[in-house]
Amino acid sequence: MISQILVFNSGSSSFKFSLYQSDQSEPILAGLAEQLGSQQACISFEYKQNKQKFKTPNSNHEAAINFVLDQFKTLNIDTSLIKAIGHRVVHGGEFYNDSVIVNDEVLNNLESCSDLAPLHNPANIQGIKIMQNLFKDIPQIAVFDTAFHQTLPKHAYLYAVDYNWYKDYAVRRYGFHGTSHKYVAQQAKTILKLDDKHQLITIHLGNGCSACAIKDGKSVDTTMGMTPLEGLVMGTRCGDIDPSILQFIANKTNLSLDEITTKLNKQSGLLGLSGLSNDMRTLIAASATNPQAKIAIDVFCFKLAKQIMALATSLSKIDVLVFTGGIGENSAFIREEVLEHLVLLGYKVETEFNNHQKLYNGQITKANTPLAMVIKTDEELMIKNDTTRLIFSN
Ligand code: ADP
Asked: How crowded is the C-beta side of 178, counted as CA atoms within 13 Å?
């Protein structure tokens, strides 16, 4: 019998959804609700290559989900075929190294992780609860950004601070984007026919950015930390900085710690450096005439390359370096800038491959030199696959 899986990614003022047939890798339908709770709230859909957009002023999450389900009916989509709902959950703390079927204990655990991810987990939990209400007899599955990184060795996940902070408050590095890193690593293994002892570095460059060292299929180090603020330069997040800057800026500006943390999350990174935009495409277009845009790109690429070298510390070889995410998949320029910093590792970009990577199975480096390639990520598919695996194995 046909069964369908709904994938749901609930944010604080938005949610994404995709509906899959359980044995297919392309969604039947996908969509996005944005600016929820505001006058500008709207919902867009893509179904059978037709795009539709609806204004739903002031709708909250629940109203928007009901609107979406009504649209399913209009499109003759039979919601009784939905057998499970897979949810993206950002933080699973140390509780989960794999996806899990949600029950009351799981919800309690997720709530206890909320102060580790205050911008994300409450919204993820809200999404699960709304769906539990609407689909009472259907299993809800939580798929965590952190789960893939639970294999990090202690020397990689501990901060060199008072050990009691770890014991008492779970202060440690968790890592994020795990679903994406795991997906592209599995794809690389399949495409390149790598054996189980493969080692690689995956680089996810979207609005958030992180990289991951993977050994024998397991994450052994990654750039994000206790929160997604650590590591690489991102669209609006600063990545690694000297922690003393917080006190220094508090003294200089009278900003509170909360305000400074918000600045580091929302007004730093590419946006903070360029003063122009958090969007890499905009910065690349402006960089010929705007020195601030250029310096933002230079810092982004240099710090990324430096972190790739640091991740190599956890590996004894690198079978392949994989670029993914909106920037990683689409910007030949950024890939080239990054690899130029990695001459020590032997990377040599082949311009023709890099500019037309899709024609070359994603390969972007010269033949007979260390391999770097592009693989398109698909976090929704990974959530759907995990959801299918869990409901059919129980
Ligand atoms: P999110 O993390 O929100 O899913 P994406 O993975 O879609 O975001 O990545 C968004 C980033 O990708 C933006 O900075 C955008 O400018 C960048 N991007 C998309 N296409 C290109 C391109 N052709 N060249 C450079 N950057 C691009």
From this structure: 32
